[in-house]
Amino acid sequence: MKKKIKIVLIGVGTLIAVVLLIGGGFFYKFNSEIKKMHPVATGKIVDNIFAIKDEFVNIYVLQDSNQYIVIDAGQDIEVVAAEFKKLNINPDLVIAVLLTHTDPDHVAGVPLFKNAKIYLAKEEEKMLTGQKQKIPFVSNSISRKDYILLEDKQTLKIGNENSFSILTEGHTTGSMCYQINDKYLFTGDILSLVNGKLGPSVKFLDLDNEMATKSISKITNLPNVEYIFTAHFGYTSDYKNAVKDWK
Ligand SMILES: [Zn+2]
Fold first, then answer.
1. Ligand 1 centre distance from Cα of residue 75 (Å)
2. CATH code: domain of residue 231
């Protein structure tokens, strides 16, 4: 009997050690990837576009006369609210939130925008229903259920602004880029920017890195784009130079 208890205790101890080791390894890797990220500081960055910095992630805010369109929603609703206050922008005036995907660092601020319509890619719903998960038993979620699903290559008129959706799956099932008014391209997490050049996405954080890398070629040949805005690696105003050497 005593021997059995000993065996059980050793088994449980080993299991706990393995879980702690995997968990610890995950957080170590996660933190080291975050340290490489370089989002821009909160403020007006170009034309009618503002950046909001929420630790390691950016939200972008596009002004359309007296209302706003937001790309992604950050990872901490209190930080997002405080940064909006700094910019003197009332979140009630946000009419649309375009989500590049539904990972937790991109959706936390959604409840702040109570007058906004929430948009995401049709394919991204698999991340919300649990059909696809990056971590076993952990699904993505957002506070609103009345989101609007977008197709690949769908055009949208939001206020006076034109948005064109480009499906760039890989980081998640329905990662979407948004080309707004032709010249501004918002890419979420499907690529990185290093010294103004396109780089791959963060492999460790991807659902399917190979597919994510393939998807980048869908946005490297857009004749009218001038700017690329990423979620974790800042932005560039020289699209042509950024995409030039990507193959
Ligand atoms: Zn992210």
1. 9
2. 3.60.15.10
Whether residue 4 is contained in a domain is answered as no
What's the 230 CA to ligand 1 centre distance in angstroms? 9
d(CA 201, CA 37): 11
Q: What is the pLDDT of residues 144-197, one digit of tens each?
A: 999 999 999 999 999 999 999 999 999 999 999 999 999 999 999 999 999 999
User: CB count, 10 Å around CB of 64?
Assistant: 17
Question: Look-up: residue for tokens 């699903």?
Answer: 149
Helix, strand, coil % (nearest 5) of the chain?
A: 30, 30, 40
- Locate tokens 């369109």: which residue? 69
Q: Is 154 inside any structural domain?
A: yes
Residues 138, 147: Cα–Cα separation, whole Å = 21
**Whole-structure pTM value:** 0.92
CA of 87 to the centre of ligand 1 (A): 23
**C-alpha 34 – ligand 1 centre gap (Å):** 10
Q: Is residue 3, in this structure, part of any structural domain at all?
A: no
